[in-house]
Amino acid sequence: MRIIRTANFGEMSERAAVLIGAQVVIKPTSVLGLATGSSPVGVYENLVKWYQKGILDFSQITTLNLDEYKGLAPEHDQSYRYFMNTHLFNLVNINKDRTFVPDGLQANTSHACSLYNATVHKYGPVDVQLLGIGVNGHIGFNEPSDHFEKDTFCVPLSESTILANSRFFDREEDVPKEAYTMGIGTIMSAKRVVLIASGTVKAAALKAAVKGPITPQCPASILQLHPDCTVVADEDALALLDQ
Ligand code: F6R
User: Fold this and answer.
1) Whether 143 is catalytic
2) Of these residues, 67, 68, 103, 149, which one is catalytic?
3) Is residue 36 within 8 Å of residue 68, measured between CB atoms?
4) Which listed residue (65, 117, 136, 165) is catalytic?
5) 64 — phi, psi (to 5°)?
6) pTM
7) Which of 75, 82, 212, 216 lies at a 20 to 30 A Cα distance from 103?
8) For strand 2-6 and strand 229-234, is the pairing parallel, antiparallel, or unpaired?
9) Which is the catalytic residue, given 68, 103, 127, 143?
10) Pairing, β 229-234 against β 192-197
11) For residue 39, which atom of ligand 1 is closest to its CA?
12) Torsion angle of alpha carbons 47, 53, 54, 59, nearest 10°?
């Protein structure tokens, strides 16, 4: 695991965007694994800015998102499809037919998961996977558990995740209780992983992920076994780790 220490969210976002942008330049047909939430917002802003300057071309890029709330339509303003459209896909020259997010409206759980697994197997492996980290150490929506999941599955969201994500919804009870997520096996099969973290709220989870035992109780800890994982984090998020 390589750790890039940055001063703040802005610097973290720019450094991580360089890693994703370089992948787009080096291999214009790359498959990008993408995340949502507040952590990657600045990464996407930089990618859009470099696209507008003519530095990046997304026309041959394929994307596979980590997760989606079960029950939310793509048009719902808290769905992860909506997030991706508004923060990246609508703002660059990507072919939307090559952008994939699990289908939140697919009520048949096993069908939804096998459809997304088929997509992942068709277009993967991911060249570079962008990840955020939950305050409980989750990646994608792989919540703390007694085992690591391999493929896409439907997960009941933990109380801490529902509470953390309620900041995006009008009321806590509006946060969906389940989500579809790539499993740890799929995340680990990415050729490169870039994990971003900002703020003291992430410090304990980041310490457990980087230095703690490898355990499904902290799903991000599995990244210690990834052959090419870079953590880009600001000083606040790294506060509990040694210099
Ligand atoms: C979202 C995702 C989640 C988030 C995590 C951190 O696609 O995969 O694992 O990365 O919940 O969320 P933020 O960035 O909002 O703190």
Assistant:
1) yes
2) 67
3) no
4) 136
5) -125, 115
6) 0.97
7) 216
8) parallel
9) 143
10) parallel
11) 14
12) 40
Residues in the chain: 243
**For residue 209, which of 145, 136, 159, 128 has the smallest C-alpha distance?**
136
Site to substitute for ligand 1 among 39, 143, 158, 162, most atoms within 8 A of C-beta: 39
Pocket of ligand 1 (CB under 6 A): 35-39, 66-67, 80, 132-134, 138-140
Interval between CA 134 and ligand 1 midpoint (Å): 6
